[in-house]
Amino acid sequence: MDFLPITETERELMLQRIGIADVNDLFSDIPRDTRLENRLDLDAGLEEMQVSKRLEELARANSNAADLVCFAGGGIYDHYQPALIDNILQRPEFFTAYTPYQPEVSQGTLQAIYEFQTGICELCGLPVANAGMYDGATALAEAAFMARRVSRTRSRVLVAGSIHPEKIETLRTYARAGTLEVEVISEGQRSCNNTELCTALGDDVAAVLLPYPNYYGMIEDVAPLIEAAHEVGALAVLDCNPLLLSVLKPPGDLGADIAVGEAQCLGNAMNFGGPGLGFFACTEKIMRQIPGRLVGKTTDIDGHDAYVLTLATREQHIRREKATSNICSNHALNALAAGAYLAATGPKGLASLALSACGKAHHLHDELIRTGSFEDPCPKANFGYEFILDYCGTGHLDALYDALIDAGILPGICVGEKSLLVAVTEKRTDPEIESFVGEVRSHA
Amino acid sequence: MPEPFQNRGPRPTIYESSRPGATCVCAPVADTRDASSDAFFGDYARQAAPALPQVSEVEIMRHYAHLASMNFGVDTGSYPLGSCTMKYNPRLNEWAARLPGFAQLHPSQPDETVQGALQLMYELQQDLCEISGLPGVTLQPAAGAHGEYCALMIFRAAHTAAGNPRKKVIIPDTAHGTNPASVAMAGYEVVTIPSTTDGLVDLEALRAALDHDTAAFMLTNPNTVGIFDPQITEITRAVHEVGAFAYCDGANLNAILGITRPGDQGFDALHINLHKTFSTPHGGGGPGAGPLCVSAELCPYLPGPVAVRTETGAYARKNPDKSIGRVRSYMGNFAIFVRAYAYIKMLGAEGLRGVAEQAVLSANYLRVIVQDTFTVAYNRTCMHEFVLSGANLKAETGVSTLDVAKRLLDYGFHPPTIYFPLIVSEAMMLEPTETEPLAALDALAEALRAIAAEAKSDPELLHSAPHTTPVRRLDEAGAARNPNLRVVQGFCS
Amino acid sequence: MAIPAELNYTEDHEWVKIESETAMIGITDYAQDQLGGLVFVNLPAVGDTFAVGAVFGEVESVKSVSELLAPLSGKVIEVNAELESAPETINNDPYGAGWIIKMSVSDPSQTGALLDATAYEALTA
């Protein structure tokens, strides 16, 4: 089936009006030897009912979070998505609209983004936030590029090795252009060695990129590093979990110049890891170097409040090769979800939800150690709702992991051969947590 | 229109509607086991809660209902925004993407538990290769610009492997802004060449610019004035002669689906905007997806992982041998892949060709019925879009393209893309797409005629348009001079 | 369009007012009119040196950005900091309060390459 509203009769009429007999006449600019002789080698088209069946079959061939209780995190979390969020996302006025370049008929998208920016600023304790990026990994890479621009002459960035490995990999890919020198400190370690990082600091460093919390769930002692970065004139960038920022000291209060991170956790489904939502906040001093869109409040000619994309001269459609970034999208629908989520949870709700997740995580952490099959290599570290443990039980961790999968539990993410990274959101129930611990015990 | 039902203008933000103590139903009840923030985080515990809104569920829903009422989408009316392919977004796509078996998958699940998702990605990869005529693809890029950047990094890797990363990338002056911006991010120098008076690539200028320091030539084909460049094979041959790569910006792929393939035209790489050609929604600015198709030579450099089918028939994730590394986290915008997959399966080979035919037929029909009203730049058979120039109207009446665009809003149409491409003065770029009914095309032409008449009889009406929208023309200079980017309250009120 | 006779001009629509060893620089009435309402001016720092033709700053309107090119080689001795908070001054008074920088000229012979008012008027006609 197709979605063409034009009838055969209308098509004839259109051809006549143009003055041609055959639609193929319209394609005469295409050199004959590059035209397809046969039709594309694709399946024949199907009716909607048939396609829906095929999609259901494919969906059923996966174990979703209902079949496989999710204790995995690493940036993408199985938080509860309030029912109202998807209802808002399904409004066609939002999802069938283009980028709000015509503000007179895009006030809905624009105001929603302005509110999203406000929420991110509140969480980060920073006065400027953009309309969103693709995901946390690209937001971090863009932060490194931004720091280079701000510094004008410095091209080195120091990165804590305890940041999400996929974010570091993305940063390294971006750095292959040769315009950025990425130095990863304490790579492969559970936390960044502050002395090592401070030793590497110099007046050629544009930025220090630090995790808050790190990939392994820990809150590292980042405050002295932010100070050390500033002492050599470098910017401090914090890679954050925005949901935890409801209970963690805001990056702005810690002195960070830029805060970025993955905001899937704010009301967005996991979607097998994409689309995500990168967020990006910074100080006013450097805001003219921020990548991506910004929505500002202004007035219309009648004096009414109105919203508009602003400071657009930074962007690719105006500044072209001198733009702050090539980005031309902001994952606006994900930002819409995040904005609605922050309103639905509210200040107390969000903090209470975060603490609830942290409480459950600490409980599971302690219970897993009590099984004797796991030990904590960093017992004194503070963590939020994600933690890493080393396996010390019988056999290999792989076997336990497979057994848990068979029991309908996604126990987390295996890190190396013997460590397990476990996340516990507010959604996990006591019976689910008990079942996890029970399976570990029975496997021992 | 009766006043009470007219939702004119923004209301206060949800932050300003906040009332202490108001809560929405979904705030979780604290667990008795919960410790405090201080106990978990010590010195790093937050002392003051973020000033998020305190509102009830009904207030949230009314707030967003009002916001939605101020927006214009494809479902609202005609959206002839050139180069953006604002086609209808099928509802099956939306339903499919929300199936728990797709939406509720964690990216770190083992392959055995996500066979359906990997199969979907694998089949989509195969289909995109067939459509593009290029044998390799990565679904990872999140958007068209991201795909461009990914391609340039792959070119850099391939050139470096051949001994010299090279220095510059050539683009025509009709290029989208993302092209030069991506080139700069990839560490290359941008060389812009002028187009011919027909809006095509100036082959002589291209040949003069090409040398062994050229990494690539980037071209949108059909180009941004809506013309398929008939010299295409000569262009790609000239690029290959100096060992450079030919890159196709796939923004305009809708026009040639099933008719010709960029791979067969000699391109080495092409990004596809799933949110343009394959009907996934634009979302008010994303998320879309920008899969990148490449030639056999470039396959080893693709970012990983890609979905593969193993000998046993199972699906898995694999990193290409010489991968440039990932360009983002995880596998890409999977929820967008589901939508594009549903679309391709519904249309099939015949349906996709039908899309191109109708898109081109509709654009030419619209061109013919407006050509007496506005000057058509390059008035000849076009592909899926064409460009009007408002220069004559402006000279005659003082009414600019911006005025015309704003007045179209009063007639219930989203305006075309304006002031692009840069080579046409007072440009208006119209792309009706194949999903616009005939009556809507006629009505759009009629509205343009009426506006052109108004320009002569009452230019002031157009200078001050729009008159019927939720807000009217904005003080954009004021917004940029004194940026107000958030509700000032809370942490530094 | 005002083109004061006592000033010198460049083909990039900047004006230069030479006073012994120093040059005051701004953009012309024609330039400000073409750009429309200015929203931001990116100024160099006092002490920065520029060769003739080098980019010393930028002026931005809502939807365009233009580079400012040094009309002469020299060192920046003063910048019009007022423009940071009121860029529209350039629109209102391009040859007066809207001046952008003052430079000490390192090679006075370069002034010979500048246009006089008549030549500039011909350029914008």
* SS class of chain C: alpha+beta
Distance between the termini of chain B: 40 Å
Unreliably modeled segments of chain B: none
Query: Which structural class is indicated by helix and strand composition of chain B?
Result: alpha/beta
What proportion of the residues of chain B form beta strands (DSSP E)? 5-15%
Mean pLDDT of chain B: 94
- What is the terminal separation of chain C in angstroms? 10 Å
CATH homologous superfamily designation of chain C: RNA polymerase II/Efflux pump adaptor protein, barrel-sandwich hybrid domain
Rg from Cα of chain B = 25 Å
Estimated radius of gyration of chain C: 13 Å
CATH topology of the largest domain in chain B: Aspartate Aminotransferase, domain 2
* Major pleated sheet of chain B: 7 strands, mixed
- Give me the number of helical elements of chain B: 15
CATH top level of chain C is Mainly Beta
| Strand order across the largest sheet of chain B | 1-7-6-5-4-2-3
| Helicity range of chain C | 10-25%
Low-confidence stretches of chain C: none
Can you walk me through this structure?
- The complex is a heterotrimer of chains A (444), B (493) and C (125).
- By secondary structure, chain A is an alpha/beta fold.
- Chain A folds into two domains: 69-81 and 347-443, Aspartate Aminotransferase, domain 1 (Alpha-Beta Complex), CATH 3.90.1150.10; 84-339, Type I PLP-dependent aspartate aminotransferase-like (Major domain) (Aspartate Aminotransferase, domain 2), CATH 3.40.640.
- Chain A contains 13 helices and 17 strands.
- In chain A, α6 packs across α7 (165-175) and α11 (332-370) crosses α13 (430-443).
- Chain A is globular.
- The N and C termini of chain A lie far apart (55 Å).
- The model of chain A has no long low-confidence stretch (mean pLDDT 96).
- With 493 residues, chain B is α/β, with parallel strands linked by helices.
- Chain B is 35% helix and 11% strand.
- Chain B has helices at 37-41, 57-69, 91-97, 100-103, 115-132, 144-161, 178-185, 203-209, 232-241, 334-370, 391-397, 401-410, 438-457, 459-463, 476-481; strands at 136-138, 168-172, 189-193, 214-220, 245-249, 269-271, 292-294, 306-309, 315-318, 375-377, 386-389, 417-418, 427-430.
- In chain B, α3 packs antiparallel against α10, α5 runs parallel beside α10 (334-370) and α6 (144-161) packs across α7 (178-185).
- Chain B is globular and about 60 Å long.
- The two termini of chain B are 40 Å apart.
- The mean pLDDT of chain B is 94.
- With 125 residues, chain C is α+β, with helices and mostly antiparallel strands.
- Chain C has a single domain, classed as RNA polymerase II/Efflux pump adaptor protein, barrel-sandwich hybrid domain (OB fold (Dihydrolipoamide Acetyltransferase, E2P)).
- Chain C is built from four helices and nine strands.
- Chain C has helices at residues 29-35, 82-85, 89-92, 117-124, and strands spanning 8-9, 14-19, 22-27, 38-42, 49-50, 55-61, 65-69, 74-79, 101-105.
- Chains in contact: A-B, A-C, B-C.
